[in-house]
Design goal:
The protein is α/β, with parallel strands linked by helices. It has one domain: Rossmann fold, CATH 3.40.50. The chain is built from three helices and five strands. A five-stranded mixed β-sheet has the order 1-2-4-3-5. Strand 1, helix 1 and strand 2 form a beta-alpha-beta unit.
């Protein structure tokens, strides 16, 4: 079945798909173009089966690729993906009711210069310098029923680094 839908309007115009019916989603260079990512992710959560998989790929937030394209409206970093899960909302309730647990984040690195650095040194470098990471690929799982908004339920994803020439 082919569906044509404006992903910006999913908060007001639901997908014509039954609740709990989709096994897997692939968002390849989509999410960075969406002005209302919480609305889109909540709607995808509605149609996702329990334990459904969602893979999102986008430019990493500190890369020039994230901001040079004038159609990109938002940048994503390692910590951004937790906001698609309920436990992150212990600080404030934005009305979001999806619960996508980030399981793994693959960072596609630009050069092999960093391969010998300790994990702490590499993370410090990623947080202060631009264009170290080119893209990220995030694998998330739909947690149903959704969890409470409690800080102690936050679970960090597995982080994997991949270097390319």
């Amino acid at each position: 079945m082919d569906i044509v839908q404006d992903l910006e309007t999913l908060r007001d115009t639901p997908l014509p798909i039954a609740d709990n019916s989709v096994d897997e989603f692939l968002l390849c260079h989509v999410i960075e173009h969406i002005r209302d990512p919480l609305g889109m992710m909540q709607e995808l959560y509605r149609v996702a089966k329990p334990d459904a998989k969602l893979v999102a790929q986008c430019p990493y937030g500190s890369s020039d690729d994230a901001w040079e394209d004038p159609t990109h409206v938002r940048a994503y970093f390692i910590g951004s993906w937790g906001f698609f899960s309920q436990p992150f909302y212990w600080r404030a309730d934005y009305g979001y009711r999806g619960d996508w647990q980030p399981m793994k984040i693959d960072l596609l690195m630009h050069a092999k210069d960093d391969e010998g650095l300790s994990a702490e040194a590499l993370m410090a470098r990623l947080q202060r310098e631009r264009n170290i990471v080119r893209e990220c690929v995030v694998t998330m799982t739909a947690i149903k029923p959704h969890r409470a908004a409690k800080r102690e339920l936050q679970t960090p994803p597995k982080l994997q680094l991949h270097w390319s020439p």
